[in-house]
């Protein structure tokens, strides 16, 4: 029973990856029908290894696309009724990192609604591989992470919002009505963020 | 009497409103006259713009010790000072970050940074954050170029490439100073750049 519990726990652990749920489930179920002398421990070890491998492979799977300033306009003008939540951040920005859990929570809690969270990294370009990717993997960020590939911010800051001075963290929420934007140049709490998203979801 | 009371109420509201408007104000715009200040320099002495008797202008830079963007620009700020201080345009750097939220930006750490990097310009500590608020500085680095009458002539970034100094095409601050020196209109008066938000006191 103890072993079963252990197995269950690991099942929960990998359950966040529905694609692999079936595979792991079959593997996990297999020993139950096997004769007693079957070397369970070996299989368990193998399974653990597999889980770990899958796990690392999956969390590193989030590739970080490079975007240009035009993408901001496209989000602003998209005619879908999606609410876009664009958060401008960087790995070295303390307040940005501190508010990331709020955006991750929003991404989870509003998954069923038309809310898209995009974390726009403003790190240095030469640090995308060395800093941003490991950070995203380590923090297991599930929200979409993109990198703003523009060398001169003066060309695109106003396109995000004329209210924005360029300080990060900053967040732009593009509401369902595409002519209405909510902009914040500060660190947001989950409550502030959720209130803004609720407003943005209304027509 | 009633009319007078009503009038008074309206006047009071108007005054109150104008005050709140002022408080909300976003600091200086190009063309405004900037205030002087008296802030503690890393050498322990108080410094103000008025002390710089020969100055023809001032390159006021809100910066700090730790922000990667401020660090990326540090050498360029030193170069600006070396090039333009002899011509009458010294750099006056100001750190306004709250040391509670950002211990690395305390006065001691400013002194350390100055020693490490051999920083030649005045590096002042705006402990109350009054000056950053008055100027409307929001991030580091954030430049306010003043002429000798402290009229703001340029606000924004140092150049157009924070990551690679060698790839900067437009050197906004240098161009603005050259325009001032030539008695011409500053070509680009205001720019925006990504920077670390100033760490305001809680």
Written description of the protein model:
By secondary structure, chain A is an alpha/beta fold. Helices cover 47% and strands 16% of the residues of chain A. At the A-B interface, strand 5 of A face strand 9 of B. Strand 5 of chain A pairs parallel with strand 9 of chain B, so a sheet runs across the interface.
CATH homology superfamily of the largest domain in chain A? Glutaredoxin
Q: How many strand elements of chain B?
A: 9
The CATH C-level class name of chain B: Alpha Beta
Mean pLDDT of chain A: 81
The CATH C-level name of the largest domain in chain A is: Alpha Beta
Short structural description:
The complex is a heterodimer of chains A (203) and B (202). Chain A has 203 residues and is an alpha/beta fold.
Main features:
heterodimer, A: 203 residues, alpha/beta, 2 domains, 47% helix, B: 202 residues, alpha+beta, Glutaredoxin, seven-stranded mixed β-sheet, 9 strands, 33% helix
């Amino acid at each position: 029973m103890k072993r079963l519990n252990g197995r269950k726990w690991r099942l929960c652990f990998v359950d966040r990856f529905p694609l692999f749920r079936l595979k792991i489930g079959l593997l996990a179920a297999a020993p139950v029908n096997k004769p007693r002398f079957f070397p369970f421990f070996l299989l368990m070890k193998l399974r653990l290894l597999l889980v770990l491998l899958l796990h690392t492979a999956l969390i590193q799977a989030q590739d970080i696309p490079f975007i240009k300033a035009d993408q901001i306009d496209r989000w602003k003008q998209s005619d879908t009724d999606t609410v876009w939540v664009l958060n401008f951040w960087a790995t070295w920005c303390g307040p940005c990192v501190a508010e990331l859990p709020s955006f991750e929570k929003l991404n989870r809690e509003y998954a069923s609604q038309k809310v898209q969270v995009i974390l726009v990294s403003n790190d240095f370009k030469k640090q995308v591989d060395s800093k941003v990717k490991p950070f995203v993997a380590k923090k297991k960020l599930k929200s979409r992470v993109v990198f703003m590939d523009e060398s001169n911010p003066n060309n695109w800051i106003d396109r995000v919002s004329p209210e924005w001075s360029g300080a990060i963290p900053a967040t732009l929420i593009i509401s369902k009505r595409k002519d209405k934007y909510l902009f914040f140049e500060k660190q947001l709490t989950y409550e502030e963020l959720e209130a803004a998203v609720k407003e943005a979801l209304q027509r | 009497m009633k009319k007078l009371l009503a009038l008074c109420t309206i006047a009071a509201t108007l005054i109150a409103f104008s005050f709140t408007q002022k408080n909300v104000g976003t600091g200086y715009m190009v063309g405004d006259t900037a205030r002087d200040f008296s802030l503690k320099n890393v050498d322990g002495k108080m410094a103000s713009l008025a002390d710089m008797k020969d100055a023809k202008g001032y390159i006021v830079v809100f910066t700090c010790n730790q922000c990667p963007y401020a660090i990326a620009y540090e050498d360029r700020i030193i170069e600006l000072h070396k090039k333009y201080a002899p011509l009458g345009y010294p750099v006056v750097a100001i750190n306004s970050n709250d040391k509670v939220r950002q211990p690395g930006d305390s006065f001691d750490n400013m002194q350390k940074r100055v020693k490490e990097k051999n920083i030649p310009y005045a590096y002042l500590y705006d402990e109350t954050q009054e000056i950053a608020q008055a100027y409307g500085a929001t991030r580091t680095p954030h430049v306010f170029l003043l002429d000798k009458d402290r009229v703001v002539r340029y606000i924004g970034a140092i150049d157009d490439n924070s990551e690679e100094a060698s790839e900067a095409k437009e050197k906004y601050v240098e161009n603005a100073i050259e325009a001032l020196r030539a008695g011409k209109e500053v070509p680009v008066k205001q720019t925006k750049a990504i920077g670390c938000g100033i760490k305001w006191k809680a």
